[in-house]
Amino acid sequence: MKSTIITTLIILLLSGCTSMQPLSEGMPKSQFGNDLKVGDYISIVTNDGETFEFEISLVDSEEVHGEGVAIKISDITEIKKREFSLSKSSGLVATIWVGLSIIVLGYLGVVF
């Protein structure tokens, strides 16, 4: 039981720490490469509506490369990058802490 709770908490904490943030809103395509680096996990929508999600292995002024894909920056209509979110992570930890405290105190007969 204890290991199941710990495993569940770890999964929830890891999933709450990141989110996809748009980079393309109001940004000229020529600047996309400036905000991307090798190792970033991105989601790209191209001019023809195709969506690609991958980890960047190479980025230059012309193309973004990753996982067997090379996409020209001029073909990108939307791009999002996975980023760490301190506020979401903190909120998740606080919510889980309060929830578990209520469960444990209820189980012990201290609450309710």
CATH top level class name of the domain at 18-85: Mainly Beta
Portion in beta strands: 25-35%
Based on CA atoms alone, the radius of gyration comes out at: 20 Å
Sequence of strands across the biggest β-sheet: 1-7-2-3
* Gap from first CA to last CA: 23 Å
Number of helices: 2
- Class of secondary structure makeup: alpha+beta
Percentage of helical residues? 25-40%
The 3D shape can be described as: elongated
Number of strands: 7
Q: Which architecture of the domain at 18-85 does the CATH hierarchy give at level 2?
A: Roll
Q: Low-confidence runs (pLDDT<50, min 5 residues)?
A: none
Secondary-structure element series:
HEEEEEEEH
Q: Biggest sheet, in brief?
A: 4 strands, antiparallel
Give the averaged pLDDT, no decimals: 78
Examine the coordinates and then state which fold CATH places here, giving the name of the CATH topology of the domain at 18-85. SH3 type barrels
Care to describe what's here?
With 112 residues, this protein is an alpha+beta fold. The protein has a domain at 18-85: SH3 type barrels. The protein is 34% helix and 31% strand. The chain has helices at residues 2-16, 86-108, and strands at 18-22, 41-46, 51-55, 58-59, 63-66, 69-72, 76-84. Strands 1-7-2-3 form a four-stranded antiparallel β-sheet. A three-stranded antiparallel β-sheet has the order 4-5-6, with no helix packed on it. α1 (2-16) packs antiparallel against α2 (86-108). The longest helix has 23 residues, at 86-108. The radius of gyration is 20 Å and the shape is elongated. The protein starts with a helix and ends with a helix. The mean pLDDT is 78.
